[in-house]
Amino acid sequence: MKAILNILKKPLIEYNFFLSMPRNMRVLLVTNMVYAFVLPVVDIFVSAYIMRSSNDPNLVATYQMFLYVGIPFTFLINGFLLNKFNISNLYSFGMILSGISMLVMMSLDNMDLFGVAFAGLIMGSSFGFFWANRDFLALITTKDDNRNYYYGLETFFFTTTSIIVPFAVGSFLVSYQSFDWFKNGDIASAYRIVTYCVLIITVLSSLIIHKGKFTNPTQKKFVYFKFDKLWNKMLFLSGLKGLAQGFLVTAPAILVMRLLGDENSLGVIQSISGIVTAIALYILGRVSKPKHRIAIFTVGLFIFFIGSFANAMLFSATGVMIFVLCLVLFRPLHDIAYFPIQMKVIDILVKKEKRSEFAYIFNHEFGLFVGRFLGLILFLILSNYVSIDFSLKYSILIIAALQLISIPVAKHITKEANQQKEIKKIPGPKDEPVLESA
Questions:
Q1: Mean pLDDT by 10 residues, the chain (438 residues)
Q2: Which domains does the chain have, with CATH numbers?
Q3: 355: left (phi over 0), alpha (psi -120 to 50) or beta
Q4: Closest CA to 378 of 368, 390, 367
Q5: Would the pTM count as exceeding 0.85?
Q6: On the CB side of 386, how many CA atoms lie within 13 Å of its CA?
Q7: Rounded distance, CA 27 to CA 20, Å?
Q8: How far apart are CA 224 and CA 221, in angstroms?
Q9: How many CB atoms lie within 10 A of CB 254?
């Protein structure tokens, strides 16, 4: 309790604690903090734009499907490009490409299958470059003891922007149309203004990442088909994580636009639900230890199940509000525990199997892809062969129930990783000296 009070009362202590972290870790965090203003727009309002333009949830799911196809394909391309280009340049390119993808979407005259699929592939490519390099940089700039803090702080800013950005963008879009600011009554023009703002932010974040001194993977080979049993268990866990990701990026937009009606409602709900989460996440990242990860993981998954159950049973404006509130709580709690578990397993297996860290990051993405693909397929099957409403109710509930399997799997992986690390006596990556502020 005393530690929590110190965090809330003494921001300077927290800032100095941040400065005590390795410089490259700080540069990466600042980069991601700036780019965090882009992610809510990409995750929420692109799907809302498709839904508003077409009123077709299947088209939203199609966009998401091609987005997810583009990610692992780009991971593969990125692996080869790392042999020729600096990782900071590839990371920058991925961030800027997300803005370009939004421009492609806004330039479509007709919201047809081909155009949506093409825009989805470009956005998937941007995510591929972003996440492939981000995960590698996070791995090499942190160690097991400070990863709770790293992901807690990063997720704190992601959650904070999920409060500010949806509210601001949602209010802007509704006000633009209500007051007819530019005398054309076309909300697509408002979306284009948002897109230009996204492009400016991506350029800024791409400049910041070059302030760090990051090294590319030393081992060129990164494609393997056989791994240690511990990694196979990690892949199963990634498949379960991907199962939730497959539809949950688009679910809030579809549900809100269908049951509440406009982007402002979406923005307000996202913002309200993020306030408590942001504060709780920073505290968790600051005071929690590796031993607390499973408890955090478990709480997040049960919150997700409660929200999904409420949505299925009520399927109303109230149910949507409860679901989105729970979803905003679930995602960061899940990630703050999941990513350090994944990184710890990679730390161990890099030494054990003598492979590049990127080999595991690349392979992990395919576990996520399988899960995402199955999640979207479940939604499309139920919506086409039963009904859209049935799918919106029960596909999310089915996925939430399956997610509970992750708890014993993560617990087993953590236990086995701890045992292997103790037997092998494998140290974490060494800290680099602290230099000037990022």
A1: 60 80 92 87 71 73 83 90 91 88 74 80 88 90 87 82 77 70 64 84 91 84 87 94 76 68 56 65 74 90 92 83 81 86 91 89 91 84 82 86 92 87 54 38
A2: 22-214+228-424 (1.20.1250.20)
A3: beta
A4: 390
A5: no
A6: 14
A7: 13
A8: 8
A9: 23
